[in-house]
Structures are given as C-alpha cells and as structure tokens.
Write a structure and sequence with these properties.
By secondary structure, the protein is of the alpha/beta class. The chain has helices at about 10-20, 45-60, 75-85, 110-120, 125-135, 140-145, 160-170, 180-190, 195-205, 225-235, 255, 260-270; strands spanning about 70-75, 90-100, 210-215, 240-245. Helix 10 (about 225-235) links the parallel strand 3 and strand 4.
Length: about 280
Amino acid sequence: MGLGSLKSGWQRQVKDFGHAQADKYTVLIVDNRGIGESDKPLMRYSTSEMAKDMLELLDHVGWTQNRSVHVAGISMGGMIAQELSLMIPERIGSLVLTSTAARIVNTIGYLENLRNRINLFIPKSIDRQIAFTKTQIFSPQYVDAPDDVECTVKPFPTNGDRFGAHEITKRKDTQSFTRSGFMCQLLAGGWHHKSKEDLQRLGDEVGRERIVVIHGTIDKMITFPHGETLLAELGGEEQSVRKEFFEGQSHVIPVEKRREYNCILEEMIAGAGGL
C-alpha cells in the first residue's frame, strides 16, 4: 500500500481474489515498515530498503519460483514494486504500477507545490485532516456517492463517510499509526528515484508485456504527468507496456474503480501464463 496506509487498504481485492476465488489465487498483503503491524524503526527509510523487506517476506513464504509472483503496488507501494522487480526480475509474473512514479517532480508550479508541502506539517484537527485527505486521494463524485462496499451491519451514508471512519480508527491506534513512522515513509517516497536507464532495465529484465501502468487524470497526490513519464520511460505501448489511464479519476483507483481494476489484474495474471 501507499504512504501512511495499512494493508487493509487492499481489503476489496483480498475479498475478490483471496476469498471469492481462493481456489485460484493466493494473496499476500503486508504493512510496509513504519505502519500497522510492521516494525517502525526511527531511521532513514528508502524504497529500496522497503523492497528488501518484501523480498525477505517472499523468501520466507517460499515464493521463489520464476514468474511466480504477481506484484501490484499503488503510490509509494508502486515505487517499492519497482525496486523489488529490479531485485528479482525473474520471479515477476506481472507488474501492476498504479498511481505511482519513477521519481517525484514538480508538475503543479512552485507556489502550489510549496503550499502543499507546508500543509503536511501544519497541525490540524483530525476532522480537518480527514476532510483534506479526501480531496487529495478521491474524485469528488466518489466521495459524495452512497457507500458501495458490502457491509456487515449497515452501510455508511457515503463513501466519504466510510473512509472517514476508517481513518479515525487508524489514527486512534497510536501503536499502529505514528507520526514518526509516517514521516519516515514520506521521506522514502520523496527520495525515490528511478532513472530512464533504470526503467529501461526494468522493462528488459521483467518483460514489458508483463507490465501495466495505471493512472488517473486528476490525481492530486502523484499527478498524471508522472504516470505518462513512467509509461514512456518503460518503453510505452509501442514496446508492449500496457496503458490504463482513467479519465476523471483520482489516486485510489483500486477503490473507486474496483471492478475495472480487478479485471486488469486478472488479465495481467492470465496473460503472463502464456508468455
């Protein structure tokens, strides 16, 4: 998952693949270092070190065969997925890079970029924090729409209300969600840097037909030009990298476009079997 997100952010895909199709798929999700049930060492984090965490886990569970691992990463998780794939390209069956970047660049202008970064460090009430986060990661129509997740008791009034309840629960657990862990992750994402040459090697070694780049055109967290650059530097559609750009969609496509996203995952996994 991405910056400051728990592994439960994949709950829809866990249900749709790991439970509903348990005879076909095995799903592995993990809290990145700095959050949830994982350790939160106070030190400099990097996406390469976080990828090593993932590699140790894959080795531990025995997922070591060639082309046996299908990796999906969103946002900072997509950055970690790039690093992991460069470490073990022969194990990667398919690589789904969602709402992520090879490196963070300023695409919105100096003043707005500065204002957004200052806002990260200004103390706010939890209500203001959650309200602001909603505007950054979801498209407006999704936030205001009726809750669309299967419920065990009763649905929330809106998707935004469900997200708010999830965030309150997360942030009240001071063992799971810490400011220091969040800041360490933030710096790791900000320092992530994969050059054009790195991405060319990634495409060469993993296989471009195994890679899909997914991005929303109104993403405010990692703006759309990052997705365009990532696609182009991997080799683009002309070299068989798959492109899935969602018009009018924001950052959290696996949530907002659950059905469409799941179809892409299924197609990438099935397609990898024939390569």
